[in-house]
Sequence to fold (250 residues):
Amino acid sequence: MIPQGAEIVFLIPTLTEAPTVGEVVRRAKRYAHRVVVVDGYSGDDTCDRAEEAGAEILLQEGKGKGAALHTAFSSIDADIYVIVDGDGTYDVSETEELLAPILVGEARMVIGSRLSGKLEDGAISKTHLLGNRFFNYLINVLFGSDVTDSQSGFRVISRDAMDLQGLKSKGFEIETEMTIQALGKGVKVVEVPIAYGRRTGSPSKLNGFRHGFSILITILRIWATSRAGDYALTMNDSAYGNEVEWASTE
Fold:
């Protein structure tokens, strides 16, 4: 069901996701009139499959997932953005659960938390799971938050919250930056448990060491910047899940 009055756009960043992107688009169209695949010049039939399923195609400027989202946010107007990967690992049927906190005013960004939801066996390697938990722990220690999945690729954000962030990341670290910057700008963030499955299409593009290092640098960069400002994280309960808010201490 598509809520009345809200301009909701699905953004699906892709790079060689031909086996799965069509089904992701078809499911996304149940929740939004507009579905945009932001493609990084795939060398397969990703764009054709996406168009056949009813998506618009937007070719990204530059390389990397972050670059794809920069291109999308600068080109597409909407009240609410739903961001999901095109590899079929996220259950798009959970979109309503992620939209609900924003539609009722409980949040301005909602993160689908894989680590507090249901993980299919083998969906995340032990190395990547350990890295994810380490980065969540580091964020929570440095920023006094209680985030469980800072790197989730399934999230919803309002346009006004997006405009506040001033994102810089071009690669996979974009989700981590979105999470921390939202908190730093006083945006209410809620996490909702979601399911996460194994990849069944193209191989993962994630390079554990290289991308992990980029995420670490991103966290430390934002932390160093935040030390110069008067901000403090405060935790509040939410009917939808874990809520984190970073408010000025002035």
